[in-house]
Write a structure and sequence with these properties.
The chain has 15 helices and 13 strands. It is an alpha/beta fold and about 425 residues long. It has three domains: about 180 residues, Rossmann fold, CATH 3.40.50; about 55 residues, no CATH class; about 170 residues, Nucleotidyltransferase, domain 5. α1 packs parallel to α2 and α2 packs across α3. The longest helix is centred in the N-terminal third of the chain and has 19 residues. The radius of gyration is 27 Å and the shape is globular.
């Protein structure tokens, strides 16, 4: 009901619905569409799913309702993709393509299962809404142009994460519910002690639940999947980290406000990943008693190396002279014929840039986050927002691969960090052959 109220009474901004698999979000979207069509003359609505099949799921709820309740008001025959009512309201289905979305001008777009959307389609959908105000003498209500996004949040770094994070920054309403809010009432004679749902339920299904998902169905679903999938897709606690490169990263454990000072006893480094179109990243790092602390970060695009150097020199920690960087920085710039490494050395820095495989540096970071024995040896200050975001969201692709995705966002801070781990260790002698 919270969603229907927010949607029906013309929200000032977009809506995001985060709900479990089979939790009724698609059905509620169809109900909201039905109310808009009946009570808001001239309202144009489009249903856009993560796939055409997903679009038709909401449509398959909506069309029978319209035919049952308002068949005599249809001015066009309800077909597989479109219908119109006598009051001027109309609805149709869009396919998951830029071509279908671009050029549309409507008041409402209901996007179902946005986790499956292609980024370019979601981006195109942001520009299609137009508010509608009745002309003088016309009956009707003001209809605001809004987008409603429905989905389960499946995985780290996906479309739903981008939408939720953007909604939080813009204070867009997020309406969320989980399995327990759509679970059926549990019979009093059923034993709680041996129930597989006890950890989630704690008995409230006997007193507060009155939904449509049966207890037995919920138990069977839980028994089929991992705890991680269950918590992500049914309890809506957090997205699954199955594809996360650093699944061991934990904000409570690895983010620290209190850090050691850069003292003479600490080994101080700058870790750099070069870029111009892609961001240039510099991390201020110290190592003390075999523990690594990332104290600060500098991330900037579209600046020359000289401009970056000026910013780094102006930092309060001016005495840091060691740099670990990308081996590609030793190549000459086509315009200046001078490499980034040469510029850094000319500025008085000691530069290391040993080549390594990506997986080598990743394993070093993993070992620092969660050693096989002992406590973590990598901590990050809260001011390093881009690095923290990268540690959370750096991920593997859906296709099996040993290398993480180079998404242009999260890979650059991680690259800088792994250059530090690879280059800050003293070179070890090669293994002997026998």
């Amino acid at each position: 009901m919270q969603y229907l109220i927010q949607s029906y009474f013309e929200p000032a901004a977009d809506l995001v619905v985060w709900a479990p698999r089979g939790g009724g979000k698609t059905r509620l979207g169809a109900v909201a569409t039905l109310l808009d069509l009946f009570h808001k003359p001239g309202c144009s609505i489009r249903i856009l799913g993560g796939s055409l099949e997903q679009s038709y799921k909401m449509w398959d709820h909506l069309l029978p309702d319209v035919q049952r309740l308002a068949a005599n008001q249809l001015t066009t025959r309800g077909n597989a993709k479109r219908f119109r009512l006598e009051n001027g309201s109309e609805a149709s289905v869009l396919t998951q393509s830029e071509r279908a979305v671009r050029g549309v001008r409507v008041q409402k777009v209901r996007c179902d299962e946005v986790e499956l959307f292609r980024p370019e389609v979601w981006e195109a959908a942001q520009l299609v809404t137009r508010s509608h105000t009745p002309a003088d003498g016309e009956t009707g209500v003001e209809i605001r142009g809004v987008i409603e996004a429905f989905s389960t949040w499946h995985r780290v770094g996906g479309m739903m994460q981008q939408i939720v994070e953007s909604a939080r920054k813009r204070c867009t309403t997020i309406i969320k519910w989980c399995l327990l809010e759509v679970l059926q009432r549990c019979p009093t004679e059923r034993s709680c002690e041996s129930c597989p749902l006890w950890d989630e339920c704690r008995g409230i299904a006997k007193t507060r639940c009155d939904g449509f998902i049966s207890i037995d169905d919920a138990i069977r679903m839980k028994q089929r999947v991992s705890q991680e999938v269950w918590e992500a897709e049914m309890l809506c606690k957090r997205p699954s980290r199955r594809n996360a490169v650093f699944a061991a990263f934990n904000a409570e454990q690895h983010i620290r406000e209190q850090m050691p000072d850069i003292t003479s006893s600490a080994e101080a480094w700058l870790a750099m990943d070069f870029g111009f179109v892609n961001p240039f990243v510099c991390l201020w790092i110290i190592k003390l008693d075999e523990v690594t602390y990332v104290l600060d970060e500098y991330v900037q695009e579209q600046r020359t190396m000289q401009e970056h150097l000026e910013q780094i020199k102006a930092h309060s920690w001016k005495r840091v002279r060691r740099i670990a960087c990308d081996p590609a920085g030793s190549g000459r710039n086509e315009q200046t014929a001078v490499s980034n490494v040469q510029m850094l050395r000319a500025a008085g820095y000691t530069v290391r840039f040993r080549g390594s495989r990506i997986v080598e540096g990743i394993e070093m970071i993993r070992a620092a986050l969660r050693p096989a024995a002992g406590k973590p040896t990598l901590f990050v200050h809260p001011r390093c927002a881009r690095l923290i975001e990268a540690l959370r969201n750096y991920r593997y692709g859906e296709q099996s691969s040993e290398l993480p995705l180079k998404d242009g966002i999260h890979d650059h801070p991680i690259d800088a960090l792994r250059y530090y781990f690879v280059n800050s260790r003293r070179a070890e002698p090669p293994p002997r052959s026998y």
